Batch of 2 targets.
Target 1
Amino acid sequence: MYKQIRLVTIGILYTINVIGCNSIPIKHNLIDRGTYMVETSHLSQSIDERIRFLFLHYTAEDFHASLKTLTNQHVSAHYLVPANPSKNNGKYVVWQLVPEHQRAWHAGASSWRGRTNLNDTSIGIEIENKGYIESILGRMWLPYNIKQTNLVIALSKDIVQRYAILPQNVVGHMDIAPHRKLDPGPLFPWKQLAEQGIGAWPDQKTVDKYLAMRSKDQPTDLFTLQNKLASYGYDIIPNGINNTASHNVIAAFQMHFRPANFRGLPDAETEAIVDALLEKYGSIP
Ligand SMILES: [Zn+2]
């Protein structure tokens, strides 16, 4: 008898519960898309940003040629920063060529921190700069002016903050495609950007610690250096062989983090800089 009453009670409670559940009013948030409706009242917590990388380039052309190339041909970038930007309402103007939610075709065949197809997950900024000229004194790299640099900083800072892009994921075309590209070249002010919270830069004290009394240009073990560059994110196969592929990656790294000497030789300072970056930002997962 007692059991029967209990079962009945549970049944009633269950019914009340079901009725109760059904009676909770759902707060709808409907969007009309013309031919159908979309319910958006329950958005998932399992989300992150599609954009994970910011890649910087130089155009290797003047402004008008760059604008033409980047809007008419089979390449594009989200933004173009002129060498001599105009002002509007007291602010310098950058050119947006591709909306941020769409893919721009700027990375090409490339790899960074174990990922490829980088156009899918990146924003690309092209900076007007002709790169270099060949002269009787050798290759002369062309500098970036202060006005343009400040505009690149303002734009990059905004993008990095909006998408929470990690410092180690802000790099140059040369870093992600070291066998094909040299841009934005050794005169690009990476350190100045890092001081503004954009991109990675090693702490000098940590570099000195890893240099450990060695002279900066002392040769270091190539296999070890290749391994460390691969751990940081460069597309390099550690094999201890000093071939063109290895040279290109070491030179790209040096152009970014030690522009005073980017001959591509495996030296102690280069290794100490990679060590300091790995300590600060970690290796690829
Ligand atoms: Zn490029």
Target 2
Amino acid sequence: MPFIKEEFSEGEPQTSLPPADADLRISEVFESVQGEGVNIGTPSIFLRLALCNLRCSWCDTKYTWDWEQYKFEDEVRVISQKDLLRLMRERRSRNVVITGGEPLLQQRQLVAVLRNLAPEYTFEVETAGTIVPSDDMVELIKTWNVSPKLANSGNPLQARHRTLPLTRFAQLENAFFKFVIQAENDIHEVLDLVNEFHIPAARVLLMPEATDPAVLDKKSDWLAQLCIQHQFRLGYRLHVALWGNKRGV
Ligand code: SF4
């Protein structure tokens, strides 16, 4: 049954994370190329975990958490760690993109799974930066793609702006901050966060909010100018350019 709504509301979820030996709630496992972030283009296994503690209005993976629009029973697979390891070892890629939903909601089980795959595999995590990563996770992860949500996501400030996790990620040199930009005005909020958490510009990416290639191109155009102005990186969405909003690619 869906446990996200009851146990992981917009408050402080760390205290109620499932134990290390629990089964995982996953949405899908597939192989593709990394479409975003600093490792763009890398052939990767995508491990998409179900459940999220945020509710972004423009979320393109609502099937991981929106149980008013989707049926939990249809979308979520409860899988043992052993079966998940077997699923992943069937694929050729050796870079694993751990995404969601919010994968850190299941970080205790993830540590156990990833330890079984290391050191042959490399791992990157996509997170909204609302949950403090454990030291064990930090040790295992090669790249953090942290995407703090702005007001344009529709989440209340107290849910999306979490001081402890953002402070921790800002300290990690392998954590890159990827901001989803809807309109040019969003830059003010980005600058406030960058200043508040002392994030070096070289670790900031501005990424257009887009689920179709035409919008992606249009927004990338003016976003590039903002990146030059503030010395941030321009983020892209390779999977949108190649496949639009298609799922599982
Ligand atoms: S944090 Fe990510 S998965 Fe969760 S609602 Fe926002 S965009 Fe969707």
